[in-house]
Amino acid sequence: MRLVAATLPGFGRTPAPDDVTVEHYGRLAADLAASLGADAVAGHSLGANVALEMALRGGFPGPFVLLSPSFCRRDESIFPRALDRLGSVLGHLPFSLMFRIIGPAMRGSLPPDQADDVVAELANNDPRFVRRQTRSYLQYLDGHPALAGDLATSGRSTTVIFGEKDDIKIQPEERTALQGSPAASLVIISGAGHFALIEKPGQVAELIVEALGSD
């Protein structure tokens, strides 16, 4: 089994596209998946929303594994929402400050042997780009208020995963929609936070393999 990990353009100080909407990222990711001959797509956090966009707009037939997607603005962590509001007044400065303090804030929730690498990768971003992309992402959530219901009725084979202690939440009506879906399933990983793929890699890998086998 071959795994290809892709960086969304603009993150990690890669060249940023002019169009940083989730819809555009979904098209780019669908093109990449097709060029690779991928059998399944897994995405985490913002990447999960990009994969969700692929599922809903027909960019890839699936199956999908979505780790910690946000189905509405209320689901999203308070930090990007607060940074977006501050950014409307202070520009990119709140994002610059966030990257300076992200290490101490996150280190305790990451495995000690990987914390330095993960924090360094997260801090290696252009605050001006992240400000622009965060604004676009939150606008996407506001413009698609029924993402969970849309996924539940899409017929796409999808496994949605959250850590038990995840900063990303799921609303009761979203949980009900997914649990009542014939094609989507909801999994809560005990003891994990937002980075379940790092905290519980074996369990996440098993769920991806199960998703492959379900198609």
Instruction: Write down the domain tally.
Output: 1
CATH architecture: 3-Layer(aba) Sandwich
What global shape is seen?
globular
Q: What share of residues is helical? A: 40-55%
CATH fold description: Rossmann fold
Mean pLDDT: 92
CATH superfamily: Alpha/Beta hydrolase fold, catalytic domain
Main sheet: strands, sense, barrel? 4 strands, parallel
Distance from N terminus to C terminus (CA atoms, Å) equals: 15 Å
Describe this structure in words.
The protein has 215 residues and is α/β, with parallel strands linked by helices. It has one domain (18-214): Rossmann fold, CATH 3.40.50. The protein has helices spanning 22-36, 46-56, 78-90, 93-106, 112-123, 127-143, 147-152, 172-179, 196-199, 201-214; strands at 41-44, 64-67, 158-163, 184-189. Strands 1-2-3-4 form a four-stranded parallel sheet, with helices on both faces. Helix 1 packs across helix 2 (46-56), helix 4 runs antiparallel to helix 5 and helix 4 packs across helix 6 (127-143). The two termini are 15 Å apart.
